[in-house]
Design brief:
Blueprint: E1 9-14, E2 21-26, E3 31-33, E4 36-38, H1 40-48, E5 63-65, H2 66-100, H3 123-126, H4 135-148, H5 153-157, H6 160-190, E6 201-202, H7 210-223, E7 228-233, E8 236-239, E9 245-246, H8 249-256, H9 264-267, E10 275-277, H10 293-302, E11 308-309, E12 317-319, E13 326-327, E14 334-335, H11 338-344, H12 346-349, E15 352-353, E16 360-361, H13 364-371, E17 382-383, E18 390-391, H14 394-405, E19 411-412, E20 419-420, H15 423-432, E21 440-441, E22 448-449, H16 452-463, E23 469-470, E24 477-478, H17 481-492, E25 497-498, E26 505-506, H18 509-520, E27 525-526, E28 533-534, H19 537-547
Parallel strand pairs: 6-11, 10-12
Antiparallel strand pairs: 1-2, 2-5, 3-4, 7-8, 7-10, 8-9, 13-14, 15-16, 17-18, 19-20, 21-22, 23-24, 25-26, 27-28
Helix pairs in contact: 1-2, 2-6, 4-6
Length: about 550
């Protein structure tokens, strides 16, 4: 039997069973799993009696994903289990009935093992004919039987009616038993492997689907322990089950414990290696205290008879989340932000390596983007068709288009039906509308910010002193190029920003914008002593200080 090595696997297809777009297999192609032949369309017929249509069309129209394959296997296994138990029940009922039957009627039922087809049935079952509805014929058969055994026929005739009913019930039961054995015979021809629960650590053959085994291990570990699966966007933590956002990992872990881990198979992110917090690993099935994943694998296989494939080394990325700085569980390196730690993990587990500089990545997409930094090609710019602004990359242009010119919102809120135009607007919406509290204190001073980006800019500018933009006249350095440009005005004396209403000029655009408010806004700031009015609070304070010394300014709002 051939393995799965050369069998078709569609990287991204629409599953006919659940409608999800995932990596799929073909319904009517033979695969192999754990040494067993699998044709999924045939499994539907055997298990549900369901004949799928349109199996001779294009590949993309006859697909089934790994999640549905797992459910189908479980259904077939459950059907097999029910049939075996039903056979045992019928077998026991016949034996009990025989023991309580009068010695006048002797019907021997022998149920033999099915390993040898020639001994599948007893003589009574092999010669069994459909039960006749003619009661007189049954009576004659019964009387003949008793005459041969030397039983008084006169007395027998008075007991014929209940005995006939007894014989009919017995033959009905034998007929059901025969049908049950026929079904079991078909199943056992397809499944001759040993019971997996008797082999705690399973080593699959070379044709086993390693990707599926990895997924199986991950699912088994999550369902039977207290590990916490999650996903991240930048350095924010999200619940894998309901997508709720958390800035503190301890709150994420407490929240995730309220979900049923058996739902993980329905929300697993396709084609992404799972992120798992292993701060607490203890077994869910008993009170055992466990500290690491390897010990957990041994425990749930030996104690709880769970299946774990031992040829899988890394099912997921492991983290120990805690507030503040986070550390790598592999080498102990510490990082201020989670996204930096996640990028670092590629050095340990990334299988896609740059041939030029040796950088590691988890997937081919990340490596391909990195390789562009080594390519020697002329600088190319991308121009926005709406505002003619230039960008160095297609990604920069796309980001600009969606955030500045898009008329369709595409960032849904996780807690209500609102859809926002940008990540930042959704970020602000979560704080203003849903009351999410976010604070990012600086570790070097008492400043506190409400987003990580502002905190990073603060650290670079004030503590790391990353001042790349230097004045060629006085050697002063600045963090932003715009700050350097404003500074240069002090050397050149240029006042390039002119007010269109009163012709006043200013060296900086910011100063001009403040001035324009005096033309656009009403004079909101009024002096209570002389009724002078100003457009800016600073102008009113200056007035009070110079004209009315000793009086304080009372804010209107």
């Amino acid at each position: 039997m051939s393995g799965n090595k050369n069998k078709p696997v569609i990287d991204a297809g629409l599953c006919r069973c659940c409608g999800a777009t995932k990596k799929c297999r073909l319904l009517n192609v033979e695969y192999e799993w754990q040494g067993k032949r699998e044709v999924y369309s045939e499994m539907f017929v055997d298990c549900f009696g369901l004949m799928l249509s349109h199996l001779e069309v294009e590949q993309m129209d006859r697909l089934i994903c790994a999640t549905c394959v797992t459910r189908l296997r479980e259904a077939c296994s459950f059907r097999h289990q029910v049939l075996v138990c039903e056979q045992k029940l019928l077998q026991s009922k016949i034996q009990v009935h025989e023991d309580s039957t009068s010695s006048d009627v002797k019907v021997e039922v022998v149920v033999k093992p099915e390993n040898d087809d020639s001994h599948m049935y007893s003589d009574d079952e092999r010669d069994l004919e459909p039960l006749s509805d003619n009661e007189s014929q049954i009576k004659n058969e019964l009387l003949t039987e008793r005459q041969q055994d030397g039983v008084d026929v006169e007395n027998t005739l008075n007991k014929t009616v209940p005995d006939v009913e007894h014989l009919k019930a017995k033959r009905d039961m034998l007929a059901k038993l025969k049908k049950m054995k026929d079904k079991l015979k078909v199943i056992q021809k397809k499944d001759k492997t040993n019971n997996l629960t008797q082999q705690p650590l399973v080593t699959s053959n070379k044709f086993t689907d390693k990707e599926f085994n990895t997924y199986h291990n991950t699912l088994t570990i999550i369902e039977n322990s207290y590990v916490c699966p999650f996903f991240t966007i930048f350095s924010d933590y999200h619940c894998i089950y309901c997508r709720e956002l958390f800035t503190e990992p301890d709150k994420l872990i407490d929240h995730t414990m309220t979900h049923d881990p058996r739902d993980y198979k329905d929300v697993a992110i396709e084609k992404k290696i799972p992120l798992i917090d292993i701060t607490r690993v203890d077994c869910r099935l008993c009170a055992a205290r466990i500290d690491d994943i390897e010990t957990l694998k041994i425990h749930i296989t030996t104690v709880h008879n769970k299946v774990i494939y031992d040829e899988i080394d890394t099912e997921f990325l492991k983290f120990r989340l805690k507030p503040g700085k986070v550390s790598c569980v592999e080498c102990g390196n510490t990082f201020s932000f989670f996204h930096a730690l996640k990028r670092h993990m590629a050095e340990h587990f990334g299988s896609h390596i740059c041939d030029v500089c040796g950088a590691h990545y988890f997937d081919q997409h990340g490596l391909s983007n990195h390789m562009k930094t080594h390519a020697q090609k002329p600088e190319e710019t991308y121009v926005c068709k709406h505002c003619s602004k230039n960008f160095k990359s297609k990604h920069g242009l796309y980001y600009h288009m969606t955030h500045r010119h898009s008329t369709v919102p595409s960032y849904p809120c996780y807690k209500c039906d609102e859809v926002l135009f940008s990540y930042y607007k959704r970020y602000k919406h979560m704080m203003d509308v849903h009351g999410e509290h976010r604070s990012f204190p600086c570790e070097n001073c008492d400043k506190v910010y409400n987003n990580r980006k502002t905190l990073r800019e603060h650290n670079k500018k004030n503590h790391l002193r990353i001042l790349k933009h230097e004045c060629t006249v006085c050697d002063k350095k600045f963090y932003l190029p715009s700050a350097l440009k404003d500074h240069m005005m002090s050397h050149t004396g240029e006042r390039n920003y002119r007010c269109e209403y009163c012709a006043k000029t200013y060296p900086r655009l910011r100063a001009l914008k403040v001035h324009l408010q005096s033309h656009e806004n009403a004079k909101r700031y009024k002096c209570a002593l002389c009724n002078n009015a100003y457009t800016q609070a600073n102008n009113l304070k200056t007035h009070m200080r110079t004209k009315h010394q000793g009086f304080e300014v009372k804010d209107d709002d």
